Amino acid sequence: MTGTPGNGSICCQMFLIVKHLPLRLFFLCCLTGFITAPAHGQLLSDSTYAQIRAAKDYPTKIKGYLTYGEKTGSRDFEDVIRVKLEGIQLAGKNGDALSAGLLKRQTGEAFYFKGNYDAAAAYLYESVALLEKVPDKTKLATSYNALAKLYRKTRDLKRSMENYDRAMAIFRSVNDSAGVAMIYNESGVVFEYSGEYDKAAARYTASLNIDKRLNDIGGICYALSNLAGLYTLQKKFPEAENYLLQALAFRKALKDSFALALNYSDLGNTYFSAGSHEKAKAYIDTSIRISSKMGYPELTGSNYDMLGKIAEQQGNYQTALAFYKKKSVIGDSIFSLEKAKQIEELNTRYETVKKERTIQDQENKITLQNIFIAAAIGLVLLGSLLAYTQYRKYQWRQEAKNRAEILKQQELAAVAVIEAEEAERHRIATDLHDGVGQIMSAAKMNLSAFEHRAEFKTADEKLSFEKIISLVDAGCKEVRTVSHNMMPNAMMKNNLAAAIREFLDKLDDRALKVHFYSEGFEEGSNSNAETILYRVIQECVNNVIKHSRADTVDISLIKDENEISATIEDNGIGFDVHDRRKQEGIGLKNIRTRVEFLKGTVEITASPGEGTLVALHIPL
User: Fold this and answer.
1) Which of these, 553, 419, 425, lies nearest to 485 by C-alpha position?
2) What is the mean pLDDT of the chain?
3) Nearest Cα to 476, choosing from 509, 501, 439, 421?
């Protein structure tokens, strides 16, 4: 494991790229999306992408997305991400959870190498969620490994090891020796970070032995590099150099430019630690040329950091400062504060060595620093204000959501009550008509039959019997009237206008004259809205009869393609619409509740001695 203590091997971080070479090259890289091939310094050709877009059938197209980027030694991660996101969208449309899970892992790994760790975590967790449902658990194990590597990078070693253990358990359960070797090599880094070098060496060695047995050249190279890193940390530089040169020879034979960039960087680190600054610089320069082209900012930044240290030890503070600034521009999210401190220290040293700056220059510097501090404080305050604003917006959204949910529940409750009421009306009407009504009709029929057979001794007996028949007949009519009011026959057979006309025809026109006009109800309808509107108009008419003392009522009912409008106007005594007791009466409450259920509006215009006008508007 090469690199400075606590920084870990960049080489190991790229372990998934060419873990199984050459015998298992295409197998593992198809699995991870990080195959490398002979270094030609070019991204995957446009023709390959064109072949993916031109493919007609889904299997060919999704296979192209899964393997996109495998034939390149130095990849453009932005290009990889763009293409993988297209593949994710395609897999989602086709309900292909396996391909979507693999593509999300590949996208997360690409974000990881770009240094965008939050996006990497999001895609890797989505990959795990999808692959947990897939029978082939080796795919899930590789996603666990990628997550473990991410946590290792952020120094959450406990979570990193938990994910490595999950991946190891899966690979062992299916006897995947290559996978076991990969986890040994990757997880050794965790022990190296925690200073447990013996345990790290044991894991690297175990990985190396398995890779040798499998003739896995790529795995052998990574194990050698990791062991070399341990030797570097322990200042056993000849052994470290020997292992790294062996790995370099293999990688040159494989023409794997991606892994070569890592190997050159590790050699540079080893030579720097051994004090061979010129050798170190030569190898690091080579690594930078490759890492910059493939868009791997962490490796490039690490290389600039190493060149800065070399220049610093050689007393070239201005040069060191320039390299550290390049490192800072790349923006390593984990080490940015540490590097900023180092840059400030080198800047002070550079000022001391030059000694040519005047006191005025120093005062200007102090002024600039004060401005920087003030700006930083302002940014912190602004950030705090923005954070608070976002928090308040979140609270408001939650409150609005809660209010909407309460209104929804209230509306559902109202709907349930009204629907239950209509159902109960229908049931009672049916029972009256089919049950009590039929019994009363049968009783009348039997009494009529009995009348023809009976011999009445007196006229009073016959008169009493005829009264009984009259009472039964009146009962039949009453049952029929009640059942029809509760569920009007015209409503079930025809439409709203016919049902209301039937209801009005039963009123005594000597007590109340009714003028009824309807329009737009030529076609029959028995919608729930019209049934409820019938109840509303019925309630309005009953209110006129009970309370208004009116002798005339005008009813208008008009239906167009957008709404149903109804007006009920009487010439009665009216009432004070601002009287709260009147507004809270059961009749008006029923009317408002039913109209609100239909998403309509009700307007009541009235005043004492002036009659009452009720206007209803129900949207269709």
Assistant:
1) 425
2) 80
3) 439
